[in-house]
Design a protein that fits this description.
binds nicotinamide-adenine-dinucleotide; seven-stranded parallel beta sheet; 8 helices; 7 strands; globular; 48% helix; alpha/beta; NAD binding; Rossmann fold; fatty acid biosynthesis
Protein backbone atom coordinates (compact mmCIF):
# COMPACT_ATOMS: atom_id res chain seq x y z
CA UNK A 1 0.00 0.00 0.00
CA UNK A 2 2.76 2.41 -0.91
CA UNK A 3 0.36 4.73 -2.75
CA UNK A 4 -2.63 4.54 -0.41
CA UNK A 5 -5.35 7.02 -1.52
CA UNK A 6 -3.00 8.76 -3.96
CA UNK A 7 -4.67 9.88 -7.18
CA UNK A 8 -2.67 8.87 -10.25
CA UNK A 9 -3.21 9.69 -13.90
CA UNK A 10 -1.56 7.29 -16.32
CA UNK A 11 -1.58 8.22 -20.01
CA UNK A 12 -1.46 5.35 -22.47
CA UNK A 13 -2.91 3.28 -19.63
CA UNK A 14 -4.86 0.94 -21.90
CA UNK A 15 -2.02 -1.41 -22.78
CA UNK A 16 1.57 -2.46 -22.26
CA UNK A 17 3.64 -0.65 -19.63
CA UNK A 18 0.87 1.85 -18.80
CA UNK A 19 -1.70 -0.86 -18.15
CA UNK A 20 0.69 -2.82 -15.94
CA UNK A 21 1.62 0.36 -14.05
CA UNK A 22 -2.07 1.07 -13.42
CA UNK A 23 -2.53 -2.47 -12.07
CA UNK A 24 0.48 -2.19 -9.75
CA UNK A 25 -0.51 1.29 -8.54
CA UNK A 26 -4.06 0.01 -7.86
CA UNK A 27 -2.67 -2.91 -5.86
CA UNK A 28 -0.76 -0.33 -3.83
CA UNK A 29 -3.90 1.60 -2.92
CA UNK A 30 -3.93 4.33 -5.59
CA UNK A 31 -7.05 5.77 -7.20
CA UNK A 32 -6.60 5.79 -10.94
CA UNK A 33 -7.47 7.75 -14.00
CA UNK A 34 -6.29 5.96 -17.09
CA UNK A 35 -6.22 7.99 -20.28
CA UNK A 36 -5.81 6.61 -23.76
CA UNK A 37 -6.91 7.39 -27.30
CA UNK A 38 -7.97 3.78 -27.76
CA UNK A 39 -11.47 3.77 -26.29
CA UNK A 40 -12.08 0.02 -26.56
CA UNK A 41 -8.78 -1.00 -24.95
CA UNK A 42 -9.25 1.72 -22.32
CA UNK A 43 -12.69 0.41 -21.30
CA UNK A 44 -11.30 -3.15 -21.12
CA UNK A 45 -8.39 -2.00 -18.93
CA UNK A 46 -10.85 -0.12 -16.71
CA UNK A 47 -12.92 -3.29 -16.18
CA UNK A 48 -9.78 -5.14 -15.08
CA UNK A 49 -9.02 -2.39 -12.54
CA UNK A 50 -12.59 -2.51 -11.21
CA UNK A 51 -12.28 -6.29 -10.92
CA UNK A 52 -9.30 -5.68 -8.61
CA UNK A 53 -11.56 -3.47 -6.48
CA UNK A 54 -9.79 -0.28 -7.51
CA UNK A 55 -11.42 3.13 -7.70
CA UNK A 56 -10.73 4.00 -11.31
CA UNK A 57 -11.92 6.06 -14.27
CA UNK A 58 -11.14 5.91 -17.96
CA UNK A 59 -10.95 9.13 -19.98
CA UNK A 60 -10.58 8.98 -23.75
CA UNK A 61 -7.86 11.49 -24.54
CA UNK A 62 -5.30 12.07 -27.24
CA UNK A 63 -2.32 13.58 -25.40
CA UNK A 64 -1.38 15.62 -28.47
CA UNK A 65 -4.75 17.41 -28.28
CA UNK A 66 -4.74 20.20 -25.71
CA UNK A 67 -8.54 20.21 -25.27
CA UNK A 68 -8.55 16.46 -24.58
CA UNK A 69 -5.76 16.93 -22.06
CA UNK A 70 -7.51 19.79 -20.24
CA UNK A 71 -10.66 17.64 -20.08
CA UNK A 72 -8.58 14.76 -18.65
CA UNK A 73 -7.08 16.94 -15.92
CA UNK A 74 -10.47 18.54 -15.09
CA UNK A 75 -12.13 15.12 -14.88
CA UNK A 76 -9.46 13.71 -12.56
CA UNK A 77 -9.61 16.78 -10.32
CA UNK A 78 -13.40 16.87 -10.10
CA UNK A 79 -13.77 13.12 -9.61
CA UNK A 80 -11.03 12.61 -7.01
CA UNK A 81 -10.32 16.14 -5.72
CA UNK A 82 -6.54 16.04 -6.32
CA UNK A 83 -3.83 14.91 -8.72
CA UNK A 84 -0.92 13.39 -6.82
CA UNK A 85 0.86 11.49 -9.60
CA UNK A 86 1.04 11.93 -13.37
CA UNK A 87 2.68 9.20 -15.43
CA UNK A 88 3.34 10.50 -18.94
CA UNK A 89 3.51 7.09 -20.54
CA UNK A 90 1.61 7.39 -23.85
CA UNK A 91 3.92 6.96 -26.81
CA UNK A 92 4.26 5.58 -30.32
CA UNK A 93 6.96 4.60 -32.80
CA UNK A 94 6.98 5.42 -36.53
CA UNK A 95 10.42 4.16 -37.50
CA UNK A 96 12.22 4.81 -40.78
CA UNK A 97 15.57 5.63 -42.31
CA UNK A 98 16.44 9.30 -42.08
CA UNK A 99 16.43 9.92 -45.85
CA UNK A 100 13.12 8.10 -46.31
CA UNK A 101 11.32 9.48 -43.28
CA UNK A 102 8.05 11.09 -44.26
CA UNK A 103 7.49 14.47 -42.54
CA UNK A 104 4.22 13.01 -41.18
CA UNK A 105 6.22 10.31 -39.36
CA UNK A 106 8.31 13.02 -37.72
CA UNK A 107 5.28 15.15 -36.81
CA UNK A 108 3.27 12.26 -35.34
CA UNK A 109 6.01 11.07 -33.02
CA UNK A 110 6.98 14.56 -31.90
CA UNK A 111 3.37 15.60 -31.29
CA UNK A 112 2.56 12.54 -29.15
CA UNK A 113 5.87 11.58 -27.49
CA UNK A 114 7.16 15.12 -26.87
CA UNK A 115 4.33 17.68 -27.10
CA UNK A 116 1.95 15.20 -25.44
CA UNK A 117 4.20 15.08 -22.38
CA UNK A 118 4.39 18.89 -22.34
CA UNK A 119 0.58 19.24 -22.66
CA UNK A 120 -0.22 16.86 -19.80
CA UNK A 121 2.46 18.21 -17.49
CA UNK A 122 1.54 21.84 -18.10
CA UNK A 123 -2.11 21.20 -17.21
CA UNK A 124 -1.41 18.89 -14.25
CA UNK A 125 1.34 21.13 -12.84
CA UNK A 126 -1.12 23.98 -12.20
CA UNK A 127 -3.19 21.65 -10.01
CA UNK A 128 -0.10 20.26 -8.26
CA UNK A 129 1.27 23.77 -7.62
CA UNK A 130 -1.99 24.72 -5.90
CA UNK A 131 -1.70 21.56 -3.78
CA UNK A 132 1.99 22.23 -3.07
CA UNK A 133 2.78 18.60 -3.86
CA UNK A 134 2.94 16.10 -6.71
CA UNK A 135 5.00 13.58 -8.63
CA UNK A 136 5.52 13.62 -12.39
CA UNK A 137 7.01 10.59 -14.11
CA UNK A 138 7.99 10.60 -17.76
CA UNK A 139 8.52 7.74 -20.19
CA UNK A 140 11.92 8.34 -21.75
CA UNK A 141 13.88 5.56 -23.46
CA UNK A 142 17.46 4.39 -23.73
CA UNK A 143 17.05 5.58 -27.35
CA UNK A 144 16.76 9.14 -26.02
CA UNK A 145 20.10 8.69 -24.25
CA UNK A 146 22.09 6.82 -26.89
CA UNK A 147 20.15 7.21 -30.19
CA UNK A 148 19.17 4.43 -32.57
CA UNK A 149 19.31 3.70 -36.28
CA UNK A 150 15.91 4.32 -37.91
CA UNK A 151 14.53 6.21 -34.92
CA UNK A 152 15.46 9.86 -35.55
CA UNK A 153 11.97 11.02 -34.58
CA UNK A 154 11.69 8.78 -31.52
CA UNK A 155 15.21 9.58 -30.28
CA UNK A 156 14.57 13.33 -30.67
CA UNK A 157 11.30 13.11 -28.74
CA UNK A 158 12.74 10.98 -25.94
CA UNK A 159 15.87 13.15 -25.62
CA UNK A 160 13.46 16.09 -25.39
CA UNK A 161 11.54 14.31 -22.62
CA UNK A 162 14.80 13.96 -20.69
CA UNK A 163 15.52 17.68 -21.16
CA UNK A 164 12.02 18.58 -19.97
CA UNK A 165 12.32 16.23 -16.97
CA UNK A 166 15.47 17.99 -15.78
CA UNK A 167 14.09 21.47 -16.42
CA UNK A 168 10.85 20.71 -14.57
CA UNK A 169 12.76 19.10 -11.68
CA UNK A 170 14.47 22.49 -11.22
CA UNK A 171 11.39 24.62 -11.87
CA UNK A 172 8.82 22.60 -9.91
CA UNK A 173 11.03 21.20 -7.13
CA UNK A 174 10.68 24.35 -5.01
CA UNK A 175 6.88 23.94 -5.30
CA UNK A 176 6.99 20.47 -3.74
CA UNK A 177 6.76 18.59 -7.03
CA UNK A 178 9.27 15.87 -7.96
CA UNK A 179 9.90 15.07 -11.63
CA UNK A 180 11.76 11.98 -12.82
CA UNK A 181 12.01 9.82 -15.93
CA UNK A 182 12.39 6.13 -16.59
CA UNK A 183 14.42 5.04 -19.62
CA UNK A 184 13.27 1.53 -20.50
CA UNK A 185 15.42 -0.72 -22.64
CA UNK A 186 13.74 -3.40 -24.73
CA UNK A 187 10.39 -4.28 -23.13
CA UNK A 188 7.95 -6.83 -24.51
CA UNK A 189 4.72 -4.96 -25.33
CA UNK A 190 2.58 -4.31 -28.40
CA UNK A 191 5.30 -1.83 -29.41
CA UNK A 192 7.98 -4.51 -29.71
CA UNK A 193 6.51 -8.01 -29.77
CA UNK A 194 5.95 -8.09 -33.55
CA UNK A 195 9.71 -8.02 -34.12
CA UNK A 196 11.20 -11.10 -35.80
CA UNK A 197 12.32 -13.91 -33.46
CA UNK A 198 15.88 -13.34 -34.68
CA UNK A 199 15.88 -9.72 -33.47
CA UNK A 200 14.33 -10.67 -30.12
CA UNK A 201 16.99 -13.38 -29.67
CA UNK A 202 19.72 -10.85 -30.52
CA UNK A 203 18.39 -8.35 -27.97
CA UNK A 204 18.31 -11.07 -25.33
CA UNK A 205 21.88 -12.07 -26.14
CA UNK A 206 23.06 -8.42 -25.93
CA UNK A 207 21.42 -7.95 -22.50
CA UNK A 208 23.74 -8.88 -19.62
CA UNK A 209 20.76 -10.25 -17.63
CA UNK A 210 19.98 -12.50 -20.65
CA UNK A 211 16.29 -11.80 -20.83
CA UNK A 212 13.96 -9.26 -22.40
CA UNK A 213 12.21 -6.72 -20.18
CA UNK A 214 8.58 -7.15 -19.19
CA UNK A 215 6.05 -4.37 -18.48
CA UNK A 216 6.20 -5.05 -14.74
CA UNK A 217 9.96 -4.32 -14.73
CA UNK A 218 9.08 -0.74 -15.67
CA UNK A 219 5.93 -0.54 -13.54
CA UNK A 220 8.01 -1.38 -10.44
CA UNK A 221 10.42 1.46 -11.25
CA UNK A 222 7.48 3.87 -11.59
CA UNK A 223 6.09 2.61 -8.26
CA UNK A 224 9.39 3.34 -6.53
CA UNK A 225 9.68 6.82 -8.06
CA UNK A 226 6.02 7.63 -7.30
CA UNK A 227 6.29 6.55 -3.67
CA UNK A 228 7.75 8.35 -0.66
CA UNK A 229 10.70 5.92 -0.85
CA UNK A 230 11.95 8.26 -3.60
CA UNK A 231 11.25 11.46 -1.66
CA UNK A 232 14.75 12.85 -2.38
CA UNK A 233 14.93 11.64 -5.99
CA UNK A 234 14.35 14.54 -8.40
CA UNK A 235 15.51 15.06 -11.99
CA UNK A 236 16.75 11.48 -12.32
CA UNK A 237 16.65 9.37 -15.47
CA UNK A 238 16.51 5.76 -14.32
CA UNK A 239 17.59 3.27 -16.99
CA UNK A 240 15.73 -0.02 -16.64
CA UNK A 241 17.26 -2.13 -19.37
CA UNK A 242 18.91 -5.19 -17.83
CA UNK A 243 22.26 -3.57 -18.56
CA UNK A 244 21.65 -3.52 -22.35
CA UNK A 245 23.27 -0.11 -22.80
CA UNK A 246 26.38 -0.70 -20.71
P1 LIG B 1 2.15 0.22 -26.09
O1 LIG B 1 1.97 0.48 -27.54
O2 LIG B 1 1.89 -1.15 -25.55
O3 LIG B 1 1.24 1.23 -25.23
C1 LIG B 1 1.16 2.59 -25.53
C2 LIG B 1 -0.24 3.08 -25.18
O4 LIG B 1 -0.28 4.48 -25.46
C3 LIG B 1 -1.34 2.43 -26.02
O5 LIG B 1 -2.42 2.04 -25.19
C4 LIG B 1 -1.77 3.55 -26.97
O6 LIG B 1 -3.13 3.46 -27.38
C5 LIG B 1 -1.49 4.78 -26.13
N1 LIG B 1 -1.31 5.99 -26.92
C6 LIG B 1 -0.52 6.16 -28.01
N2 LIG B 1 -0.64 7.40 -28.46
C7 LIG B 1 -1.51 8.05 -27.66
C8 LIG B 1 -2.05 9.35 -27.64
N3 LIG B 1 -1.73 10.26 -28.58
N4 LIG B 1 -2.89 9.69 -26.65
C9 LIG B 1 -3.25 8.78 -25.71
N5 LIG B 1 -2.80 7.51 -25.71
C10 LIG B 1 -1.94 7.15 -26.66
O7 LIG B 1 3.61 0.71 -25.76
P2 LIG B 1 4.55 0.49 -24.47
O8 LIG B 1 5.68 -0.35 -24.91
O9 LIG B 1 3.75 0.10 -23.30
O10 LIG B 1 5.12 1.97 -24.31
C11 LIG B 1 4.79 2.83 -23.23
C12 LIG B 1 5.81 3.95 -23.18
O11 LIG B 1 7.10 3.39 -22.90
C13 LIG B 1 5.97 4.73 -24.47
O12 LIG B 1 6.17 6.10 -24.19
C14 LIG B 1 7.21 4.15 -25.08
O13 LIG B 1 7.86 5.05 -25.96
C15 LIG B 1 8.04 3.85 -23.85
N6 LIG B 1 9.07 2.84 -24.08
C16 LIG B 1 8.76 1.57 -24.44
C17 LIG B 1 9.78 0.65 -24.69
C18 LIG B 1 9.52 -0.77 -25.10
O14 LIG B 1 10.49 -1.48 -25.41
N7 LIG B 1 8.30 -1.25 -25.12
C19 LIG B 1 11.11 1.07 -24.56
C20 LIG B 1 11.39 2.38 -24.20
C21 LIG B 1 10.35 3.26 -23.96
Amino acid sequence: MRLLNKVAIITGGASGIGKETARLFAQNGAKLVIADYNEEAGQAALEELHALGAEAEFVRADVSNREDVQNLINTAKSKFGAIDILVNNAGITRDGWLVKMDPAQWDQVISINLTGVFNCTQSAASVMMEQGSGVILNAASVVGLYGNIGQTNYAAAKAGVIGMTKSWAKELGPKGIRVNAVAPGFIMTGMTDKMPEKVLGMMEEKTPLRRLGQPDDIAKAYLFLASDDASFVNGAVLSVDGGLTL
